[in-house]
């Protein structure tokens, strides 16, 4: 699992120079967990880590450059990052 997170974190850092490594890693872990939980709630069968990685790569490619801005729009993420104490 750590290999997936590491690859995705590095990809996100390539897309967004506003994030520290810790912030990028946190985003990857949160997005991974959210995707898998949402997928399960929708009643879909689990397609494996490779599918989750593929979806997160798409999200990073499409939105990674502005993930730091999402904190202003999504209170649940802002609260989580505030708890981590590494906001810029």
Global shape: globular
Main β-sheet, in a few words?
none
- Beta strand %: under 5%
Number of domains: 1
- The radius of gyration is 13 Å
Derived structural class: mainly alpha
Let me know the average pLDDT: 85
From the N-terminal CA to the C-terminal CA, the straight-line distance is: 28 Å
Give the fraction of residues assigned to helices: over 70%
Number of strands: 0
The count of helical stretches stands at 5
| Order of helix and strand elements from N to C terminus | HHHHH
Which runs of at least 5 residues are low in confidence (pLDDT < 50)? Answer: none
Characterization of this structure:
The structure is a single chain. With 88 residues, the protein is mostly helical. It has one domain (2-84). The chain is built from 5 helices and no strands. It has helices spanning 2-15, 21-41, 49-63, 67-73, 75-84. The termini are far apart.
């Amino acid at each position: 699992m750590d290999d997936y997170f590491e690859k995705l974190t590095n990809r996100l850092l390539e897309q967004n120079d506003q994030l520290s490594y810790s912030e990028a890693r946190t985003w990857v872990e949160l997005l991974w967990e959210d995707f898998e939980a949402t997928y399960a709630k929708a009643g879909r069968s689990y397609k494996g880590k490779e599918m989750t990685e593929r979806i997160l790569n798409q999200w990073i490619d499409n939105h990674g450059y502005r993930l730091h801005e999402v904190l202003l729009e999504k209170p649940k993420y802002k609260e989580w990052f505030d708890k981590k104490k590494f906001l810029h």
